[in-house]
Design goal:
globular, twelve-stranded antiparallel beta barrel, single chain, about 65% strand, about 240 residues
Length: about 240
């Protein structure tokens, strides 16, 4: 086993964002087991308004791989993401999310291409997705594509996930993460996409500035592509 903990505390003008990532990994002979727990929390204060949350995301991922041939592994992967606290939609203050409302789960089987430790291309022709609404009284199920009175929605399709990290210079590190899902039951051409790109500029051992961009397309949430970008300056710890 080996463990890695990243913690960032960042300032973004009149807001702040903290995120932490824990990655326990196991490797023995032809077997690998990679785990990741990541949490992002951000808040914003605008003028005389009260401090409000502008980011809240908990992500868990576990991938078990067995050597297949050369740089390829047979792999199965489990993913989960949700929020921890109630999320309100400004300006009408309507609650649009809470813990496991929704909770998004994916279980998939496929091949993982890893030519180097900093590159992973996961191809899964068999991927099941589930949306779970813990509290349908607080948030309407229809907001996330569920029928009225239902707490679960299931789907199956194909999944592609690309992760790569590159250090261009001693002070610049690029972290790229792309997830694409295509349903076998709904319209396949309408993909679910989640793309994240982070540029980390190292200042010294404890401080760095970063540019973070996130593009999400999910028709259950919105018919439009949702974009988010931030410029951060903060303290960075790694153990």
């Amino acid at each position: 086993w080996d463990y890695l903990l990243d913690f960032h505390a960042n300032l973004q003008g009149n807001s702040f964002a903290n995120w932490a990532k824990v990655t326990p990994r196991y490797k023995k002979s032809n077997t690998t087991w990679e785990n990741s727990i990541r949490y992002r929390l951000g808040a914003l204060k605008s003028g005389s308004e009260d401090l409000s949350k502008n980011e809240d995301k908990l992500e868990l991922q576990s991938k078990l791989g067995i050597k297949a041939f050369k740089h390829w592994n047979y792999a199965t992967q489990f993913d989960m993401n949700t929020v921890l606290f109630k999320t309100k939609n400004n300006p009408n203050k309507e609650v649009v999310a809470a813990f496991l409302t929704p909770g998004n789960f994916t279980l998939s089987l496929g091949l993982d291409y890893k030519p180097k430790n900093n590159i992973s291309l996961y191809l899964s022709p068999i991927a099941g997705q589930w949306v779970y609404m813990r509290d349908t009284n607080l948030v309407a199920p229809s907001r996330y594509g569920l029928e009225t009175g239902k707490k679960f929605k299931s789907d199956a399709g194909a999944k592609i996930e690309l992760k790569n990290q590159h250090e261009l210079f001693k002070f610049l590190k690029i972290d790229n993460h792309l997830i694409i899902f295509s349903s076998y039951y709904e319209q396949p051409e309408k993909l679910t996409l989640d793309w994240r790109l982070t540029l980390n500029f190292k200042i010294n051992y404890f401080m760095q500035t970063s540019i973070y961009a996130n593009a999400v397309y999910n028709q259950n949430d919105s018919k439009k592509i949702q974009l988010k970008q931030t410029l951060n300056l903060g303290v960075y710890f790694r153990f």
